[in-house]
Fold this sequence. Notes:
Layout: E1 2-5, H1 17-27, E2 32-35, E3 40-45, H2 49-59, E4 68-70, H3 74-77, H4 85-94, E5 99-104, E6 121-125, H5 130-139, E7 143-144, H6 159-166, E8 172-175, E9 186-189, E10 196-199, H7 205-212, E11 217-218, H8 229-232, E12 241-243, E13 253-257, E14 272-274, H9 281-297, E15 302-305, H10 314-325
This protein binds adenosine monophosphate and magnesium ion.
Amino acid sequence: MLRWIISPETRDLRDAPEFTAAVSALRSGQLVAIPTETVYGLGADATNPQACAGIYAAKGRPSFNPLIAHVPSLEEAEKHGRFDARARRLAEAFWPGPLTLVVPRRAESPVCDLATAGLDTIALRVPAARIMRDLSCAAGCPIAAPSANRSGRISATTADDVIEDLGQHIAVVIDTGPTPVGVESTIVALTDDVPRLLRPGGLSRGDIEAILGEPLKRTGADDEAPAAPGMLSSHYAPNARLRLDAQNVRPGEALLAFGLPLPPGAERAVAVESLSETGNLVEAAARLFTALRKLDASGASAICVMPVPCEGLGEAINDRLARASAPRP
Ligand code: AMP
Ligand code: MG
């Protein structure tokens, strides 16, 4: 692990050899701890599903919360999400800054399904911290970055916190001292008629409402809090029914495989997607949402899922599968 200490006097960050090291780490799918004005982020290339699986693995997250994609400008953000007049007003008023906007995702955005947890919305932010914006520009990708702490622990506001919690998983830790805001970004969803406050944070409700000219509706969607049942419906759910822990493939079913050998009946499955032939849980996490989409598109009435062990990322994979198979209203 490389620790890069940046002092307030440092002028052009991009001249430093450590900057080049951080950019190549991001490009090669490694994790980089990147401070923002709110808290330290555990950053990875948001377009690389293996890299994003690495974020969940390092944090030990028991479920796949969607990740915020950090971009250098509103112009870049508009390549990934659809901004209506309200969203654009908020972005112009508060970016760069501690505000995350959840907007409908553009189909052509290269951000991977794992980063958005399979949703058709995307959380975007232009942070005030210049280092995050410079890295995103230089690496040529949005940077997915949740708070750089192990799941269930408090967010890291110093590089020492990050190293203590996650040091062994990170290629480069960028240290700019304690973060000035110290709480996470405020998250506002502009995905339907009513603007919603998903998480209070570094920018106050009053400031946002003053620009919007209407009140924000409060709904819970907090990081690492147990997901409220209401949130489940917002997750991508396949049209096909899911049958978990399948020991065989029934007629008309598609198969979501994990490991080998495939179960009896696999040869007549409507479609087969393998999460990982070798039983690798990081690879399986990286493929999960895309595999579900593909199997759903096959038109099968049901998807049977081979058992996935509940260790490491298997816990989050099983959580997601259980939600996708839950009865729907
Ligand atoms: P953290 O990355 O730790 O700051 O937490 C990110 C927060 O953003 C979590 O509470 C997520 O549930 C929320 N989030 C990210 N993307 C979305 C989305 N598309 N829709 C709703 N909430 C989101
Ligand atoms: Mg967090």
